[in-house]
Design brief:
By secondary structure, the chain is an all-alpha fold. It has two domains: 430 residues, no CATH class; 48 residues. The chain has 18 helices and two strands. The radius of gyration is 26 Å and the shape is elongated.
């Protein structure tokens, strides 16, 4: 067996290994909230994710992969560093194998520990490690590494803030109404309109990004942008009328006093009263100050009673009806997110595989390498297999261990993550965000809207720690594997 044959076989195995671990860790994030909220069973979540992830990976998946993921260094430098014929190609091939092994190994460790981490950060860290040992630390584009690293801080904060706002609005417009079922029936068509517009944007600017690149189309060119917006609004309007039709006979008869969450709105109003009365007391004296103090004491007691009676997780028949509406909204959002994820993140496994395959089989080092359909299919199969066999570990963390989820809360988290991805995709400077970080941040935002006590701080600590060490862990593992491969093949 020649060295080239050995390396090509290793590439296939390691590419499938990396894709399997991407499915076990990253894809689980897209479906974690749906399973945790009870909107989907684990089996149904796996089936839906399998369909949409595979479609995204094979039908729209990147047809051209960067030789060095995210261009962490210039691959042409390898030719200068290793001038002997074919040596640079073998070095690149070994580096891509080591990167896939490193990223897959770190993802496997993270999945075993039930940590949701970014697959993009894993492969970026691995490629950085390869660049450091093959070219030197000074050849790495550290500004890009810093920007990607900053993304794990910005994206969860942004998605968390959006989720907090969205969930608060859902509480105000639906759950805090005297008749929450009727409020949900009236609000659902407009929510569907907004959701479809946002999800069409996510699909166009992130999910279809590889397709735009294949045909050299600028999605922000005025004519293309107008067509995209027109299609999104058109689908949103269709969704609005279809939802209104489907809910036309939805039973909304309910007693005015039967909504246990009304006390939450009462508590919020009393809280505002306390704020104003404290301002009155601080700026007055004499009898008016005494009366304000007396009122503050009485309203504080009323506020405490209202808070104690508020049941966010109530299982009353009326609120169960409301949650049934949000089940379908959450499933719709999860499917779109899975499709966009499959279209883009399959390149984390298949990009290095294709780059290494071309380098070894053709003996050349190129910036861009074509990805054959069989490679995309291999990545899709690996991703689906990883989700089906081991994805439940991360699903439990995202869906159950951060905060208690219901379909409405899960929908708000999924929608906030999708909106964050869309905003990052259309920003002029191209803010790099991770689907994992966005979704976890959104779940935290939904939990925070119910109070800090609704969050599992220990789980949050573990997740943040895993994010911080993902890039260094990928780099160190890659250095280890590269030296082993270098002794075998070079």
């Amino acid at each position: 067996m020649t060295v080239e044959t050995f390396l090509l076989g290793a590439l296939l195995v390691c590419g499938l290994y990396a894709a399997w671990n991407i499915g076990a860790n990253d894809v689980a994030n897209a479906m974690g909230t749906s399973v945790g909220s009870g909107a989907l069973t684990l089996r149904r979540a796996v089936i839906l994710a399998a369909v949409f992830e595979f479609l995204g990976a094979v039908v729209v998946g990147s047809n051209v992969a960067e030789t060095v993921r995210k261009k962490m260094f210039d691959p042409a430098d390898l030719i200068l560093e290793y001038p002997e014929p074919g040596q640079a190609a073998l070095v690149l091939g070994c580096g891509m194998i080591a990167s896939l092994l490193a990223a897959g190994t770190w993802l496997m460790i993270a999945t075993w520990k039930s940590w949701p981490v970014s697959t993009t950060h894993s492969i970026v860290g691995a490629v950085v490690g390869f660049g450091c040992v093959s070219l030197g630390v000074e050849r790495i584009a550290w500004s890009k590494v810093g920007l990607i690293t900053a993304g794990w801080v910005v994206s969860p904060l942004l998605s968390g803030a959006i989720a907090y706002f969205v969930f608060t609005m859902v509480l105000k417009t639906v759950f805090f109404k005297r008749n929450p079922v009727r409020a949900a029936r009236e609000a659902a068509p407009y929510i569907v309109f907004i959701v479809l517009v946002v999800l069409c944007g996510v699909t166009a600017f992130k999910g279809l990004k590889p397709l735009w690149g294949k045909y050299n189309i600028d999605p922000f060119e005025p004519q293309t942008l107008a067509m995209t917006m027109g299609l999104a609004i058109g689908l949103g309007i269709i969704g609005l009328f279809v939802t209104r039709y489907l809910l036309r006979d939805f039973d909304s008869s309910v007693e005015a006093s039967s909504n246990p969450m009304l006390h939450g709105d009462v508590a919020r109003s009393l809280g505002k009263s306390l704020m104003h009365l404290n301002r009155v007391r601080a700026n007055t004296d004499g009898p008016l100050n005494d009366e304000a103090a007396e009122l503050i004491g009485r309203i504080e007691a009323m506020h405490s009673q209202a808070v104690a009676k508020t049941r966010f997780g109530s299982d009353s028949e009326e609120l169960r009806k409301v949650e049934r509406i949000f089940v379908y909204l959450q499933i719709l959002t999860a499917c779109f997110v899975a499709f966009a994820h499959g279209a883009n993140d399959v390149a984390n496994a298949i990009g290095p595989l294709s780059a290494g395959w071309q380098a070894i089989s053709e003996g050349t080092v190129q910036l861009d390498s074509g990805i054959p359909l069989w490679a995309l299919a291999l990545g899709g199969i690996g991703i689906v297999s990883g989700l089906a066999t081991w994805g439940w570990r991360v699903i439990k963390t995202v869906g159950e261990r951060i905060t208690e989820l219901t379909p409405s809360r899960g929908f708000c988290a999924e929608f906030a993550a999708a909106l964050t991805i869309l905003l990052a995709s259309v920003m002029p400077f191209g803010l790099p965000v991770s689907t994992t970080h966005c979704l976890v941040g959104a779940v935290l935002g939904v939990g925070a809207a119910r109070g800090i006590g609704a969050l599992n701080l220990k789980t949050m600590r573990d997740i943040f720690a895993s994010w911080a060490i993902t890039i260094p862990a990928g780099a160190l593992l890659c250095v280890f594997f590269f030296y082993i491969l270098k002794m075998i093949a070079l």
